[in-house]
Design the sequence.
């Protein structure tokens, strides 16, 4: 819990710092917008920020349920409802249009579920079908609406591309109410949502109705999508459901933290998008919000220490360095086994033991010498020190134990075990070693090599 | 409203773009990559705008180059994000295409003065412009583009038929015979991007998705064979194009409102209707034929049940054992519409005859042929009961129900094998005689 508070505080603090910095450095016009002096700006910024938060929160669960793209079908399927509502009441009132959007969106989701259950139709195809056919139906009604209600088609356009220019207090209130419902829903149903995200079978065995939880989740998604249409447009609203959640995933494995982060990322994107598009002319707000979310995503994917690319890359480099290092020590240890302790080995004979290049070997030896695990004589011959020998024997033992285990219990031919063991010896945790010892009833000695002459596994 | 040359023209254009999409769509659907079509057709927008800004014209070449580049970017980034970022593929696609589309929208809005490219047109297409072009008597450039792309798609599908097929159904095998699955993947993506761009002016990007996915899915429901599926999908696409224009020309007049919809939107809806038709009417897999199969099976079971009951009835009369509930059951069984129909069928097949008793009552009785059929059924039933009694722990009074179900499905070979398993059993677990093997055949 404390960790979560810290993480969130970190995100908020850095955002606030960035804001403060921005307010100081930017020009007067931007400062006006950033400090929300205008009433209209306040409304729009508040609306998009809350929308981003709601979409991030509920999007997390959609993302984890691998339902991300259903949001795309849902948002496109709202068009017929919007157009029909427009046909009957015009664009004066937002309520009927949102209701129409919600109804036809729900029908779209149900259609995806129905189509998916037909044997030859896979989920991806079902989503594509609903998305495009519903959109086609929507366009037909849009055309009719345009021909009967002469003139004003901007009302419909804003649902397709999204525009915040016309956002009024009432719209922001709709979004605020939705954000509140989603927040409360996520808080109170957190345990249930977690269950169906990770272990649906367990959830139903616990007597919980997966269907009911699913429906509640979908209802929140529909709500968020529908109120988001005006701000972001129906083509891009799905981005708000997917991108913040996907970005948050890079930072943590913890669901609570991920949900909070996704909410924070969503609201930061909404905020930044609204500010930037208010500052410059001719910027569609929805698109800018999506690009802002895209920046957060790219940043997270590249730099997040946990699952980000840099972190993964660093860990991989570290591991391969360790593996190379341990291989050198092991090679020296195997030489000692053959020729007696304290033997000094020439580089050429070491070079023959594995498929490493001369420069790699030299680098590894230099590192071993620097760390005091090996000594290099004046004639360039290398030997193990005491500490190096202990480490090398540990690695060699792991290697041999695993080889033996594979031969005895996995029916791997002795001539094939070396490579398998080679990959695993560096990463065997102590518990596994103990289990292997137990399974093989070995002492703590190094087992003999299965490749040695006369060795019988 | 009457049909004019222009309408024919619109149908031809629509059919060309729909066929081009449908050809490739088959592989998208079979590879479970339908959403890649969705993603690419959205994502090519910035490519188009960039090409436009760079060359400052609506040059065909530049637009295609732009589309191919962005199509490739979409495919590569989706792969990269889902691989290196360990993001689920659908979500990775969602991230990539929404960002690209957003970029495209911003570019259009920013350069609105320079770019003669309406986002409206990219999204919805404007097939009706072909109509006026046709009246003037010129061949529109977009029509030529479409024809070229359609030809390219057809060549792609025909020349690389084997490679596409093998990488679609068994990528592992493809690799082992030296066909690079990843190259085929990217080649397909490039073709999708090209086709999407060529079709934009006719049907618009979102309806491109309809043409890519829906005809192929419908065709997949109708057949198991890939060449047939491809032909069917193209046929469906063409029918949709024709139907859409026919609707647009005649329907408004019929309904009297005078309102026309976009032909491209109607095309998408038409493919949807055709798909629903395929779902319902497809042979074997269609909802209707499955329902019919179930009804036919249910009727056969009712007929067989009546035969079985009549057999047991006459058996208990013969052996003098107390009339079991068979009598009562039979009374219930032959009431109701279904049972009447079953009796009618049984009589028509000369398995059952009607005896008129003196008091005006009718009684059913088995004919000789019916007797043999019924004996076979009862034999299956009782053998199965004996088999269960021998090999399972079911209590005696639970044996009847499973046997009741199995007797309708069990094959003669199966009955023989059970007989071999239980050579000395002549009576079922309830002590009734197991009828001897067929006298009929």
Sequence:
């Amino acid at each position: 819990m404390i960790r979560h508070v810290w993480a969130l505080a970190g995100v908020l603090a850095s955002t606030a710092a960035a804001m403060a910095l921005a307010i100081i450095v930017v020009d007067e016009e931007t400062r006006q917008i950033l400090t929300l002096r205008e009433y209209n700006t306040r409304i729009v910024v508040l609306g998009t920020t809350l929308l981003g938060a709601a979409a991030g929160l509920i999007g997390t669960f959609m993302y984890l349920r691998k339902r991300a793209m259903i949001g795309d079908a849902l948002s496109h399927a709202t068009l017929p409802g919007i157009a029909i509502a427009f046909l009957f009441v015009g664009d004066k009132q937002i309520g009927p249009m949102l209701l129409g959007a919600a109804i036809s969106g729900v029908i779209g989701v149900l259609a995806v579920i129905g189509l998916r259950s037909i044997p030859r139709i896979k989920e991806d195809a079902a989503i594509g079908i609903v998305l495009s056919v519903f959109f086609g139906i929507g366009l037909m009604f849009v055309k009719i609406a345009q021909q009967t209600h002469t003139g004003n088609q901007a009302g419909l356009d804003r649902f397709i591309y999204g525009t915040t220019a016309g956002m009024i207090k009432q719209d922001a209130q709709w979004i605020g109410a939705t954000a509140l419902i989603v927040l409360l829903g996520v808080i109170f149903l957190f345990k249930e949502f977690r269950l169906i995200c990770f272990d649906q079978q367990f959830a139903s065995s616990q007597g919980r109705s997966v269907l009911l939880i699913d429906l509640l989740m979908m209802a929140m998604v529909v709500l968020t999508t529908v109120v988001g249409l005006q701000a972001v447009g129906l083509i891009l609203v799905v981005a708000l459901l997917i991108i913040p959640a996907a970005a948050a995933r890079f930072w943590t494995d913890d669901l609570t933290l991920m949900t909070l982060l996704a909410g924070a990322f969503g609201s930061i994107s909404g905020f930044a998008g609204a500010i930037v598009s208010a500052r410059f002319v001719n910027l569609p707000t929805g698109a800018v919000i999506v690009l802002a979310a895209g920046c957060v995503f790219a940043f997270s994917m590249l730099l997040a220490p946990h699952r980000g690319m840099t972190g993964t890359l660093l860990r991989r480099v570290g591991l391969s360095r360790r593996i190379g290092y341990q291989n050198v020590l092991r090679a020296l240890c195997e030489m000692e086994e053959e020729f007696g302790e304290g033997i000094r080995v020439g580089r050429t004979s070491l070079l023959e033991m594995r498929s490493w290049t001369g420069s790699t070997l030299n680098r590894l030896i230099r590192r071993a010498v620097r760390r005091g695990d090996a000594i290099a004589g004046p004639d360039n011959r290398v030997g193990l020190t005491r500490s190096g020998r202990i480490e090398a024997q540990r690695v060699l033992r792991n290697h041999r134990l695993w080889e033996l285990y594979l031969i005895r219990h996995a029916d791997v031919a002795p001539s094939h075990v070396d490579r398998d063991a080679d990959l695993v010896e560096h990463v065997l945790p102590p518990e596994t070693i103990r289990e292997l010892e137990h399974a093989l009833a070995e002492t703590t000695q190094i087992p003999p090599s299965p490749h040695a002459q006369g060795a019988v596994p | 409203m009457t049909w004019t040359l222009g309408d024919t023209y619109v149908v031809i254009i629509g059919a060309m773009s729909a066929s081009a999409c449908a050809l490739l769509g088959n592989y998208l659907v079979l590879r479970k990559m339908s959403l890649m079509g969705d993603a690419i057709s959205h994502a090519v927008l910035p490519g188009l705008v960039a090409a436009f800004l760079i060359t400052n014209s609506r040059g065909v070449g530049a637009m295609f180059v732009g589309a191919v580049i962005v199509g490739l970017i979409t495919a590569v980034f989706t792969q990269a994000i889902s691989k290196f970022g360990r993001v689920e593929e659908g979500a990775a696609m969602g991230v990539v295409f929404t960002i690209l589309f957003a970029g495209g929208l911003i570019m259009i809005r920013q350069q609105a003065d320079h770019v003669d490219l309406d986002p409206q047109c990219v999204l919805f297409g404007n097939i009706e412009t072909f109509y006026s072009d046709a009246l003037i008597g010129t061949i529109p450039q977009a029509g030529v583009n479409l024809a070229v792309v359609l030809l390219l798609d057809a060549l792609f599908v025909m020349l690389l038929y084997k490679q596409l097929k093998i990488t679609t159904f068994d990528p592992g095998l493809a690799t082992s015979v030296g066909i690079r699955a990843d190259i085929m993947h990217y080649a397909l993506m490039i073709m999708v991007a090209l086709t999407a761009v060529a079709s934009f002016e006719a049907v618009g990007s979102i309806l491109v998705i309809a043409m890519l996915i829906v005809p192929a899915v419908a065709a997949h429901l109708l057949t198991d064979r890939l060449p047939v599926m491809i032909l069917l999908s193209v046929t469906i696409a063409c029918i949709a194009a024709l139907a859409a224009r026919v609707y647009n020309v005649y329907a408004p007049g019929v309904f009297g409102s005078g309102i026309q919809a976009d032909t491209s939107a109607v095309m998408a809806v038409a493919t949807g209707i055709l798909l629903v038709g395929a779902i319902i009417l497809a042979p074997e897999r269609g909802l209707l034929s499955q329902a019919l199969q179930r009804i036919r099976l249910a009727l056969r079971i009712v007929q067989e049940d009546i035969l079985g009951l009549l057999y047991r009835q006459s058996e208990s009369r013969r052996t003098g054992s107390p009339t079991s509930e068979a009598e009562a059951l039979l009374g219930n069984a032959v009431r109701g519409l279904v049972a009447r129909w079953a009796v009618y069928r049984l009589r028509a097949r000369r398995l059952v005859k009607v005896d008129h008793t003196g008091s005006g009552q009718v009684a059913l009785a088995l004919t000789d042929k019916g007797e043999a059929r019924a004996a076979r059924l009862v034999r299956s039933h009782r053998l199965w009961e004996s088999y269960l009694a021998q090999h399972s722990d079911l209590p005696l009074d639970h044996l009847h129900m499973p046997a009741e179900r199995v007797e309708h499905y069990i094959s003669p070979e199966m009955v023989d094998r059970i007989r071999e398993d239980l050579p000395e059993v002549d009576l079922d677990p309830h002590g009734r005689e197991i009828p001897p093997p067929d006298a009929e055949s």
About this structure: Chain B has a mean pLDDT of 82.
